[in-house]
Specification:
With 254 residues, the protein is mainly α. The protein has 2 domains: 36 residues; 211 residues, MetI-like fold, CATH 1.10.3720.10. Helices cover 84% and strands 0% of the residues. α2 crosses α10 and α3 runs parallel beside α6. The longest helix is centred in the C-terminal third of the chain and has 39 residues. It is flat, with a radius of gyration of 23 Å. 31% of the residues are buried.
Length: 254
């Protein structure tokens, strides 16, 4: 029984890797078996070969996109959390602002890129602002939800203990709102990566987005898929890092 348990744990841990291998081999076989032309879909092996051999060419564009994602994410999340704490500090402000937060979330921020280009030009700052605009509404909404979810009994308890507002903020409000804050941070990783590439397609000549468009136009799909694989890896890694930080911080507070 103990041996079966260890095998089960090992399979559970390796299940994502096994699925990746199966998908890799399955796609490789399917492309060869159905004789799909290489200019239409590149095999995973050809894509990885292109990625390794030409990484020195790919890296500068990837680095630009990573910079846009990182700077925009930090700015957008910081502003979103800060505004949420300010708005929820007063019930009248909270009531007045909430409908517009929903409006920001449901509106695709990528449509603002042409206007941002008009205001800021064609530099990297356009993409950073686009990423920030995509990240901050979801963080603001999640943080506001977390703050509102704090029970009145906990506030009353802190009042009975004659705790200061600062003590209540750090000992009650922040710990209670943290799960929702991290939910917003995790969702923002998705918005950040998609917004960066989308903004590059509209207003850029360097970065992952323009390179995918360029190589697709010239039917060099192995290069295009190399960038797609890289962005998929970046997205998964980014999400996993935030998820790891969430588990580490929330467990340390228990």
């Amino acid at each position: 029984m103990e041996r079966r348990s260890k095998i089960g744990e090992l399979l559970y841990s390796l299940s994502p890797v096994l699925v990746f291998v199966l998908l890799f081999l399955g796609l490789e076989w399917a492309i060869a078996a159905f004789r799909i032309p290489s200019w239409l879909i590149a095999t995973p092996s050809a894509t990885l070969t292109t990625l390794v051999r030409n990484f020195h060419v790919i890296w500068p564009n990837l680095r630009t996109t990573l910079l846009e994602i990182g700077a925009g994410y930090l700015a957008g999340c910081s502003v979103g959390i800060l505004l949420a704490l300010i708005f929820t500090s007063n019930k009248y402000i909270d009531r007045a602002i909430s409908p517009y937060v929903i409006f920001l979330i449901v509106t695709p921020q990528i449509i603002m890129v042409p206007l941002i280009m008009l205001w800021l030009g064609f530099g990297i700052q356009v993409k950073i602002v686009a990423v920030a605009l995509s990240c901050f509404p979801i963080n603001m909404m999640s943080t506001m939800t977390g703050v509102r979810s704090v029970s009145t009994e906990r506030y009353e308890l802190m009042k009975s203990l004659r705790a200061t507002k600062l003590q209540t903020f750090f000992q009650v409000l922040i710990p209670s709102a943290l799960p929702n804050v991290f939910t917003g941070l995790r969702l923002a990783t998705i918005f950040a990566t998609t917004s960066a590439v989308g903004a590059e397609l509209i207003s850029g000549s360097i970065g992952v987005g323009p390179q995918i468009s360029y190589y697709t136009e010239f039917m060099q799909v192995d290069y295009a898929f190399a960038y797609v694989y890289l962005m998929a890896a970046v997205g998964v890694l980014f999400y996993s890092v935030i998820n790891f930080l969430e588990n580490m911080i929330l467990k340390s507070r228990k």
